[in-house]
Amino acid sequence: MTKKIKARRAVPITDPVGPRPSRNRYIAAGLAVLVVLVSIVVFATSQKTAPLAPPSSAPAPATLSPLAAAEAATPVSPATYVSASVCKSCHEPEFKAWSGSHHDLAMQIVTESTVLGNFADAKFKHYGVESSFFKRDNKFIVRTDGPDGKLTDYEISHTFGVYPLQQYLIPFPGGRYQVLPIAWDSRPKNLGGQRWFHLYPKQKPDSKDPLHWTGIYHNWALQCAECHSTDLRKGYDPASDSYKTTYSEINVACESCHGQGSRHVSWAEGAKAPYPTDADIGLPVFKSRWNEAWKFASPDAKYAVRDHFADPAAMNTCAACHARRSTLSEDKKAGAPLEDTHRLALPMPPMYHIDGQQLQEDYVWSSFLQSKMHQFGVTCMDCHEPHSLKLRAEGNALCTRCHNAAEFDVPKHHQHIAEGKGAQCVTCHMPTQDYMVIHARPDHSMRVPRPDLSTLLGSPNACTQCHTDKGPQWAASAMDTWYGKAWRDRPHFGTTLNAAETQGLKALPKLLELANNTAQPGIVRATALTLARPYASAGTLQGARTLLKDADPQVRIAALGMIEPADPMNRVLIVAPALSDPVRGVRVEAARILADLPDNRIPESRRAARASALKEYEDALALEADWPSGSVNLGNLRLRQGRTDEAIAAFERAIARDPGLTGGYANLADAFRQQGRDAEGEKVLRRGLAKLPHDADLHHALGLLLTRKKESAAALKEFVEAARLAPTNSRYVYVQAIAVHSAGKRDEALAILRSANKRFPADIDILGALISINREAGDKENTLRYARQLAELLPDNDGVKRLIAELEVR
């Protein structure tokens, strides 16, 4: 299996930042001392504005491939899958190259020839559990701990993956196939292979935990199947909690990339050479032109240039399985953009470093989209042969096809011993990270090392990843010696993205500038918009609206998120056209944002599109019904629609499937709150804390509930604990300070807020509290000081200006 099984997915499939409580919920009864001031400074979600003028042009350009666009315009009979054996009859060279590739061997039925692991009575011990691997009656058996914790014999049915590791599937009732976490290291012995190893060497999940190998998160259909077989249909039935999973072919075969082949076969049966170049052959034509497209303008040119950009359809085909994403639809169109069927994870924490470098397993697509290679027209096929999956050339020879060897493959450039590891282009520009313990995955963002930014951003750099005994300052000084200091002045989007975490609202102008900079990668611009979303206001509406016309669907999706906090009138006016966007992911996000509005608030001309997009959204949630987080997402939708009883049922289902899912408890308690059933909500939160005693979110939610019950002392304890457990969460320390002040401890509250202001100098709520409490205490000097600090963040806020003028006069 090429995808490491991840624990509870916290980010919903159609909400880039996850469910978040309304800002107003934090100003609860008993904590209302700052309501007057907060009404001045908290503008992002509460300020009413006049509606914007109707849009003057279409919402966004289409981004479907030419073939997909033609199919949309001209209905044809549905194509069907025909199998790789049919393709072979005309495409023998491609079939031969594919045979034996990682795609061909992605999943196989267990036989003597497909199993690589040692089943000759081998033993493997992990945290006291000794597993045995042996054969019985020509069957491959593993004896290991089952769902009851007892050693049990299980028959292996399928192999999963081939190199550098191979995993094994075990059939269970209900159509399940569970993925064994003990894998075979298939590397040669001299590289440390030919051994059994555990994918979680430092973890010991209890047999009742959903993270145990027999639990939901090691389920083949849930986690892995879509990208290891052709035309996979998950077939999950929530009512029976069972699967009827199907596929056309067990592995990643021809039609996984090229689409259903029946129409092409029909064309081929009647076609005769010479074939017209513009003929509709029943399949998209993926022409990478990898060999002839790149030319050096002169012998001394540094870089080759592509004569014209390739059709993105071929790369789109790769993206669906080489990206960290969730699924919106199983109905894929070959060559369509990824966003038409999937929701892409953006390169931001906790899955990535703040500068976009890989951290958790990302499957390379989001990294590649950040690269200058992608911006200048490099495609997957320029480096990788698409059928055998082999590199087009080995070592630096691959890179020097487009980077002049005389300029780059020399010690003057790489400053390392020729032919050594440091002289390899990928060592510096594609440093690896180990996933699944032994799988060294190169970072496909292909960036220039920036050790100078490591200190600022806390992100890695290739220099000290190799020279582990050195620090980033050493590496930066070495680069100064080699290249001068001009390299330090090259702007990098990572500093702007980092400012979103360190500077709060103050970072908004730079984030919006980055989002509008079309010279930057679309995925980076979308990330900037997503990080700017907590600071969305009336003033950002027009800019977000403009970006809904952007060519990149990721940018359009992120721009919709910026519009979500707007009042209903503006939301409808700006978002409704996106319900007809040519890309499903944009339509789904638009449907989510308008889901709380009844039909009579939607223009009649848009209602059919809204119904269709909402159906696509609900279908996407249904695909994720086996995920506990999918049930949370469904509950969030029903809550927005006012269908609270259905929301409660969805949240309960999420908790039942994964009792360790924070969002299930918090959202369920909030649903009870909306029904005036806080007593039941309190039971839910305490049930969650019994399971997750160190969860800051649950402590905070319980504190808010107890505040509503006017149990101030008990609430304060919960707020203190939440702030202690999540010291980087400015909201929690703010609420703690307000609770302390409400308890009559003004000096203690001020001390907490002053400390918080040093850690979060751009947090407007903390500044608002400091202004209000200092003013209440008669401390004019500090009131004015913090008001001026707030004015730097809100230079156009009339309320803050009046406050400063009033203080300066006295």
Automatic annotation (TrEMBL):
Tell me the Pfam families matching this sequence: Cytochrome_C554 (PF13435), Paired_CXXCH_1 (PF09699), TPR_19 (PF14559)
Which SUPFAM superfamilies does this UniProt record tie to the protein? Multiheme cytochromes (SSF48695), TPR-like (SSF48452)
Instruction: Report TM segments.
Output: 26-45
GO MF, one example: oxidoreductase activity
Taxonomically, which superkingdom? Bacteria
Indicate the segments forming the Cytochrome c-552/4 domain, all copies. 86-112, 220-259
The Doubled CXXCH motif domain covers which part of the protein? Answer: 379-406
Entry annotated with the keyword Transmembrane helix:
yes
Keyword Metal-binding part of the UniProt annotation: no
Q: Where are the TPR repeats?
A: 628-661, 696-729
Record's keyword terms, sorted: Membrane, Signal, TPR repeat, Transmembrane, Transmembrane helix
The protein depicted here goes by the name Tetratricopeptide TPR_2 repeat protein
